[in-house]
Amino acid sequence: MKMEQQRGLLLSFVGVQLLLMGAFHQSHHLRDLTSFLRLLIQDRSEVSPPGTSQQDVYSNLSQIHPVDVSEDDLPNCPIISPYVNGPLKVMFPENLTMEKAVEKNPLVRLGGQYKPPDCWTWHHTAVVVPYYGQAQHLQQLLFHLHPFLQRQQLHYAIYVVNQVNNTAFNRGKLRNVGFREAMQEENWDCVFFHDVNLLPEDDRNIYTCDIFPAHVSVAINKFNYKLPYQGYLGGVFALRPIHYLRINGFSNVYWNWDDEDDNIATRVKLSGMLLSRPHLLFGRYHMLEEGQDHSQKQSVWRFGLRAWIHQRWRHDGINSLGYRLLSKERHPLYTNLTVDINFQNPEAPVPNRGIWRLRESF
Ligand SMILES: *[C@@H]1O[C@H](CO)[C@@H](O)[C@H](O)[C@H]1NC(C)=O
Ligand SMILES: *[C@@H]1O[C@H](CO)[C@@H](O)[C@H](O)[C@H]1NC(C)=O
Ligand SMILES: *[C@@H]1O[C@H](CO)[C@@H](O)[C@H](O)[C@H]1NC(C)=O
Ligand SMILES: *[C@@H]1O[C@H](CO)[C@@H](O)[C@H](O)[C@H]1NC(C)=O
């Protein structure tokens, strides 16, 4: 009873906030409202305990068929997709190959793009995956994520940003490249930055954006389905393009460090926004083993760099991005963007290692 009241209060609070925000986000108002309604209804439905009645991620998808009307005459997709059901199994056929994954997803178009063939959706989501040669993880991600997104009746595409040259992995910069290239192709209204080794375990974790940037992978099996620490922002992160520009994207200067994620929190905060997170029961992920774990790693650079961010985030991000696109290939299940990220933007304020050293002593 008490809980019910609290929930009611919370919901009305969110509702008021949403309306206020709506005044500032006129064009997004309707979409915000639909995702809000979605949340409401999800919240009311029984939350199935994890581990019970997990469905195959491909179940029900064979019911989706193209209909014989023009795109303009398609009915609107329902607010809640009828295929969204709850907990999903994470499993793969023996000897999974890319061909098999392609065969299972006949409605996905070249480049890894999909639109519900039988209804018209409000939601246009780009999924950007930084990639550094984890071929098997990529195969498994594509096998799992395509049906997951189709269950949600979204218009989406998957962009894999492939770093070449034998330098350390720079996830922030690859995310920036993915954002820029994706936005040149379509007017996406939501971008999901997605680690290649995380597979969502519940399809009520809807891949759309709300009124704030969101940290989505809140409950990873490896961390016993809770946050490893409160400030953890790794894994899957989503936001609207307008918010992405507001935080100036991600830092380009973190080579091989997961600390880059702390940087995101700082950027969101300094640009005056809040961060949202899904319910722990929905934001569940299965992590494919990587062999090494950076999540708890404390970097000696950390504190110095953090101080540095406060001063530099406006100059280090999408506005200082330099790279060379070496190729763009459309594969059946993804678009492969191959980039040389060592290339510097000659017009950008080049990050100066000297500054880091100086700050390190703080
Ligand atoms: C989806 O499939 C399950 C069984 O696999 C079935 O119980 C359920 O009714 C189906 N849902 C829809 C919307 O068809
Ligand atoms: C998978 O590969 C192994 C080794 O190549 C083979 O022995 C096995 O029969 C394969 N399984 C299936 C289901 O194709
Ligand atoms: C990176 O690799 C590409 C293609 O292999 C090459 O053209 C480019 O010069 C390399 N860049 C650097 C900085 O090594
Ligand atoms: C992406 O394209 C590059 C260049 O053709 C290729 O070397 C690389 O293997 C491709 N990566 C993937 C994941 O398809």
Automatic annotation (TrEMBL):
Q: Does the keyword Transport apply?
A: no
What this protein needs as a cofactor is: Mn(2+)
Task: Report the GO terms under cellular component.
Answer: Golgi cisterna membrane; Golgi membrane
The GO molecular function terms of this record are: galactosyltransferase activity; metal ion binding
Superkingdom? Eukaryota
What keywords tag this UniProt record?
Glycoprotein, Glycosyltransferase, Golgi apparatus, Manganese, Membrane, Metal-binding, Signal-anchor, Transferase, Transmembrane, Transmembrane helix
Instruction: Decide whether keyword Membrane is in the record.
Output: yes
Q: What is its EC number?
A: 2.4.1.-
TM annotation in the entry: none
Please give the SUPFAM superfamilies that the UniProt record associates with this protein: Nucleotide-diphospho-sugar transferases
Q: Kindly report the protein's main subcellular placement as a broad class.
A: Golgi
Q: In which pathway does it act?
A: Protein modification; protein glycosylation
Topology of this chain in the membrane: Single-pass type II membrane protein
Q: Which InterPro entries match?
A: Galactosyl_T, Galactosyl_T_C, Galactosyl_T_N, Nucleotide-diphossugar_trans
Any idea where the Galactosyltransferase C-terminal domain is? 215-289
Q: Name one GO biological process term.
A: carbohydrate metabolic process
Q: Where in the cell is it found?
A: Golgi apparatus membrane
Provide the Galactosyltransferase N-terminal domain boundaries.
77-210
Give the family, as the similarity comment puts it.
Belongs to the glycosyltransferase 7 family.
Role of this protein: Responsible for the synthesis of complex-type N-linked oligosaccharides in many glycoproteins as well as the carbohydrate moieties of glycolipids.
Record-linked PANTHER family: BETA-1,4-GALACTOSYLTRANSFERASE
Tell me what this protein is called.
Answer: Beta-1,4-galactosyltransferase
